[in-house]
Every structure is written in structure tokens, then in C-alpha cells.
Design a protein that fits this description.
The chain has one domain. The protein is 66% helix and 3% strand. It is globular. This is DUF4383 domain-containing protein.
């Protein structure tokens, strides 16, 4: 098993944790915001669980599956985070289709709300494109 496959297992854990945030007492405030920053709903939970299962399957299958997961997942989540900064909503949970754009906002709260997708996506893209089977 190579490092790219191991990274997929890390993504599995991180995404399952993200899917469970609404169900851990004390992590959401009275407005339903996780850590007081962002709201997660059943669509977000489903997205995170589906992504986690994809990461797990890719990590189990092969180096090529793991690398493909990291690149495709990374581009999708990174793009979702960028969309979030520019519109206030992402496209992966269909938020841009069900909500009116809030416009671009460079504030710290908007950045923090999108940071998980920016970070997860950015690291995945970097790792996926940087890897080669010889140094996997």
C-alpha cells in the first residue's frame, strides 16, 4: 500500500467526521451552525458520506484509483470552496441552484465557512498531481 492510498483512508476519516458534526452534542450553536461558522444539512451529510465511501473504495482498490479520487475529488471540492466565497453557496450540495447568490464576500467568516473544502480540495489536488507510482 502506497502513501496515496493511505491518504485516501485519511480522507475517509475526515469526511466521515464532517458528516457527523451535526450529531455530536456541543459542536453546533443555537442557530445550527457547526462551530458557529457554517450550517450542515442532510444534503451536506450525504455528500460527505458518499465522498468518504469513494475515498475508502479508492484507497482499497489501487494506486490509480486513489490518485484519480484525489484529483477528481480535489478539483470538485476546491471548486466548491471557491464558488462558496464568490456566491455564499457551493455547487456540490446544489446550494447555488436553490439559493440566491449572496455575492462575493472576502470576510473572515465566509473564508472560514469555505476553508474545509478549500483545504481538503487543495491538498487532494496537490497530492494527486504530485504523485507518481514510483514514489506513491
Amino acid at each position: 500500500m502506497n502513501n496515496i492510498q493511505k491518504l485516501c483512508f485519511g480522507y475517509f476519516g475526515a469526511l466521515m467526521l464532517a458528516a457527523s458534526l451535526n450529531y455530536i452534542p456541543g459542536l453546533t450553536d443555537e442557530n445550527g451552525l457547526a462551530f458557529g461558522i457554517f450550517a450542515l444539512d442532510i444534503y451536506d451529510d450525504a455528500l460527505h458520506v458518499a465522498s468518504a465511501l469513494w475515498a475508502l473504495a479508492a484507497g482499497i482498490l489501487s494506486y490509480r484509483a486513489a490518485r484519480a479520487f484525489l484529483i477528481i475529488f480535489g478539483l470538485a471540492y476546491l471548486g466548491d470552496g471557491i464558488f462558496g466565497i464568490f456566491t455564499g453557496y457551493g455547487f456540490l450540495d446544489l446550494g447555488i441552484f436553490t439559493n440566491t447568490s449572496l455575492g462575493t464576500d472576502w470576510s473572515l467568516p465566509r473564508f472560514l465557512a469555505n476553508l474545509p473544502h478549500l483545504a481538503l480540495g487543495g491538498v487532494a489536488v496537490w497530492a494527486g498531481f504530485r504523485s507518481s507510482e514510483s514514489n506513491g
